[in-house]
Amino acid sequence: MHVRVPKSxxxxxxxxxxxxxxxxxxxxxxxxxxxxxxxxLFFVILCCIVMIPNLTFFSKSSYILCISFYICTSxxxxxxxxxxKYRLDRKINKREVDVIRHENLAKIWREDINVGERVIIKKGxxxxxxxxxxxAYTEKGRGSGGCVPQIHIETSAIDGESAxxxxxxxxxxxxxxxxxxxxxxxxxxxxxxxxxxTQSGELAIEVQDPQMNAPVLQSVQIPITKKNVIPMGxxxxxxxxxxxxxxxxxxxxxxxxxxxxxxxxxxxxxISIYTMIAYLILLLISVVSxxxxxxxxxxxxxxxxxxxxxxSMRTLVSNVLIFSSLIPLSLFVTLDGLRISYSIFIQSDxxxxxxxxxxxxxxxxxxxxxxxxxxxxxxxxxxxxLNQMTLKGFHLPGSSSLAIRDPKNLQALYQSMNVISILxxxxxxxxxxxxxxxxxxxxxxxxxxxxxxxxxIVLLSNQDGRVTIDIEGNILTAHVLGVLPFSxxxxxxxxxxxxxxxxxxxxxxxDETVPNMCTLQVGRRVSxxxxxxx
Length: 534
Known about the structure:
Layout lengths: L1 E3 L21 H10 L2 H13 L9 H34 L2 E6 L2 E6 L8 E4 L8 E8 L13 E5 H4 L1 E7 L13 H7 L3 E5 L4 E9 L8 E8 L4 E2 L4 E2 L4 E8 L14 H34 L11 H16 L5 H19 L62 H5 L2 H11 L4 E3 L2 E3 L3 H12 L2 E7 L2 E6 L2 E14 L4 E8 L2 E8 L9 E4 L2 E4 L6
Antiparallel strand pairs: 1-8, 2-3, 2-4, 4-13, 5-11, 5-13, 6-7, 6-12, 8-9, 9-10, 14-15, 16-17, 17-18, 18-19, 19-20, 21-22
Helix pairs in contact: 1-3, 2-3, 3-8, 6-7
Keywords: Membrane, Transmembrane, Transmembrane helix
GO molecular function: ATPase-coupled intramembrane lipid transporter activity; nucleotide binding
Subcellular location: Membrane
C-alpha cells in the first residue's frame, strides 16, 4: 500500500461499529430472526390455530399474551444490548486525539483519522489505528538526555500478553522537548510504501542537507520493519510523546462476538427433539384412528355424511392443541422471567462489588449454567492468577548466599566465580527497565533481578547496549557487543559483553544444555567456564 500525507481530510473514515442493526432494520430484522427459532415458529402456529372460532376452549387472549411476552422479551434484551454497543462505539469514536494538519497542531475525533494522518500519542493512550512510529521525545529534549530511541508498548488488549514489547522510531523528533516548525514541515513530505502482510516497507522523507548552507532538501530512504509498527489497540507504556503515522484500521465494522449457548437450554433442546418426534407420531396415530373410527362406526340415528378431508383437518388441529402440553409455552416464559430476576439479583449483590464498582450482568443466556459449575480449572498464565513469581534462593558454586568477599576490590570482583555467575543473570536476559521497573516476558528473569535488587545488587540501567550495575555500592559498567537471543532450538541465550577491557561470553540455559558447555577443549588448552544454578 502507498501512504502519503493527505491534502484534504474526510470525516468518519476510521469509525467503528459493533452493532448488528440500525434503527430502521432492528424490528423487522429481529422478528425475522425470532421466526427462525423452532420453538417460536411452533408457538406462533399454535397461536394462529387458537384464533380459529369454536375450535378450542383455550383463552385466546392469554395464549397470545404469553407468546407475545416471550418474543418481546427476547427482542427487548437484544435491543438493550444493541443500545449498549452503540453507546460504547460512540464513546470510542468521539474520543479526542491530537494530530498534525497543515503544519499545525489540531484536535479531531477518533473516527475522523485519515490514512496518512500524523497522530500524537501520550503515555497510556490506546493506539486508534495501525501506525508507524515516526518519533518519540520527552520534555527534556534530546539534548538533555531525553532522547527516546526505543519505546515500550503493551498489547494485552489484543493478545492478552502483559509483557512489554520494544518499538523503534524511524526519525529523531523533539530535540527541544517539543515539535519545532521545521520538524512539522518535514513531516509533510512523508511517503510510505508498506506491505501489511510482511509488515515491511520503506519510508521516504525530505530533510535539509547539513552540508549545504542554503536550505536544500534531500530525500532520505528509511527501511521499515516490524519494530517500527504498532498495531491498533496497543497502548504506549513509555513516559514520552510519540508521533505515529496512521496506516488505517483493519476493519470498519467489527464482527460481534458469538456467545455460546446455555448448556441447560441445549439439554432442553435435545430432549425436546425426541419429544417432538414422539409428538408427531402420536399426532399421526390419533388423527388416523379418529378418521377410521368415524368411517367404520355405526351411528345411532343412521348414516351420517362425513368429509374425510375437513374432519381430518379439524381432528389434526384439535389434537395439536391437546398435545401441545408436551412442550408447554409456560416453560419458556418462566425461564425468561427467571433469567431477568436472577440478573437483577446478581447486580444488587453488594458483596460482589470491587472498589465501589457495581456488578454488571451483560448476558442473560447462560445464567442458569452457574448452578451447574462444580470445578474451576486455571493455569499459570495469569488468566485467573496474578502471574507473579518470587525467587526464594540463589545457589552459587561454593556458596549458599549472595555475600561477596572484598566488594571494594573491583579487580577481585571481576575474577570471582560468584560475580561471573551473577553477571550472567544480570546481563543475559530479555528484561526491559521502564521507569525503574523490570518488565519482561519471562517471570523467572524478572524475579531473579528483583531478588538481586533486594540483596544490594541492582541493575540501574540498560539502554543502547550500555548496562550499569550497582554491586553493594560499586558501580560496574558493561557494554553489550552482541546478543544471541533465546531459542527453543538451542535452549540457551548468550551475550558478548565488554567489562573493564575484557570480553566475556555469558551463557545461560537449560540444565541439559549448559553443563555440556562447561568444559571446552581448544587445541591443547582447556577453557573452564563458571556454572551457576538457581
